[in-house]
């Protein structure tokens, strides 16, 4: 069984990056990290690649909007060609769409349309030597279509080439069984977001603004998410990626604790 590579989603350190990008990368490298997962990279790929390289960091996975015409703030998103070209500059292997709004998971026809868009993006990504995939939150598991939850309905309509990155915290929200999900998906799970905390209800279908502070996230291994069992249930995952939507404390201490947890599982 291959051992996944340790990584961290840079969104976890977004506030530190805004204050001191170079210093943030230096601190991550000093913690022993060699891989990161990027976000918001399309318009600054060369600059970001250079900054990461100075600190011995590489990015093999990244998040970019592939399935929506806007980024959630009313701004248009880059084209697929722009996104894939930027991914090539950074040396990414896989680009994951990180979020499809809750309203698009309530109807089977709309779910099928989203799957078709992702399949088409995967075909275009392959022409750039890239794998394309999807990263879940919790809104995908709220509704049932044809007797299964919306995420399973979606996954059943994806081309086998499409990769899945399962966020274990959000897949567990609302009491969902993330371990059973991983077993159903099998080798299609190419990456895991290692994230822990209290098991909360899905916040994305309520219509209220999402406040990351409400997630009550803690360092990996210290919350209610079944991380040990999930890692065992995803033997084909290539990356174990630490992430915090919010951390009530020093984010670097939280990441360091997560590294220690994963190192104890042989993931480095």
Chart the SSEs and their pairings.
Layout: E1 5-8, H1 14-19, H2 21-30, E2 35-39, H3 45-54, E3 58-63, H4 80-90, E4 94-97, H5 108-126, E5 131-135, E6 144-145, E7 148-149, H6 150-155, E8 163-167, H7 168-172, H8 178-185, E9 189-194, E10 196-197, E11 217-218, H9 227-232, E12 239-242, H10 251-263
Parallel strand pairs: 1-12, 2-3, 3-4, 4-5, 5-8, 8-9, 9-12
Antiparallel strand pairs: 6-7, 10-11
InterPro entries: IolE/XylAMocC-like, Xyl_isomerase-like_sf, Xyl_isomerase-like_TIM-brl
Keywords: Isomerase
GO molecular function, one term: isomerase activity
Structure overview:
This is Sugar phosphate isomerase/epimerase. Residues 26-245 form the Xylose isomerase-like TIM barrel domain. One of its GO terms (molecular function) is isomerase activity. InterPro entries: IolE/XylAMocC-like, Xyl_isomerase-like_sf, Xyl_isomerase-like_TIM-brl. The chain has 268 residues and is α/β, with parallel strands linked by helices. It has helices at residues 14-19, 21-30, 45-54, 80-90, 108-126, 150-155, 168-172, 178-185, 227-232, 251-263, and strands at 5-8, 35-39, 58-63, 94-97, 131-135, 144-145, 148-149, 163-167, 189-194, 196-197, 217-218, 239-242. It is built from ten helices and twelve strands. The strands form three sheets. Strands 1-12-9-8-5-4-3-2 form an eight-stranded parallel beta sheet. Helix 3 (45-54) runs parallel beside helix 4 (80-90). The model has no long low-confidence stretch (mean pLDDT 96).
């Amino acid at each position: 069984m291959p051992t996944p590579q340790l990584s961290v989603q840079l969104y976890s350190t977004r506030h530190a990056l805004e204050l001191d990008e170079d210093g943030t990368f230096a601190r991550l490298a000093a913690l022993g990290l060699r891989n990161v997962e990027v976000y918001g990279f399309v318009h600054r790929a060369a600059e970001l690649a250079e900054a990461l390289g100075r600190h011995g960091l590489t990015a093999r996975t990244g998040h970019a909007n592939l399935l929506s015409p806007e980024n959630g703030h009313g701004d248009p998103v880059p084209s697929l060609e722009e996104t894939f070209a930027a991914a090539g500059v950074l040396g990414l292997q896989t680009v994951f769409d990180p979020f499809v709004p809750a309203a698009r998971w309530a109807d089977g026809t709309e779910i099928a349309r989203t799957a078709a868009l992702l399949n088409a993006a995967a075909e275009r990504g392959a022409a750039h030597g890239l794998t394309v995939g999807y990263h879940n939150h919790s809104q995908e598991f709220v509704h049932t279509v044809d007797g299964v939850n919306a995420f399973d309905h979606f996954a059943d309509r994806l081309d086998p080439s499409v990769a899945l990155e399962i966020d274990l915290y959000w897949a567990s929200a609302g009491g969902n069984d993330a371990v059973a999900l991983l077993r159903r998906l099998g080798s299609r799970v190419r990456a895991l977001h290692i994230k822990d905390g209290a098991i909360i209800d899905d916040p994305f279908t309520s219509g209220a603004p999402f406040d990351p502070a409400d997630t009550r996230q803690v360092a990996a291994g210290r919350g209610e998410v079944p991380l040990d069992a999930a890692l065992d249930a995803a033997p084909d995952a290539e990356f174990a990626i630490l992430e915090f939507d919010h951390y009530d404390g020093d984010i670097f201490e939280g990441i360091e604790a997560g590294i220690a947890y994963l190192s104890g599982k042989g993931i480095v």
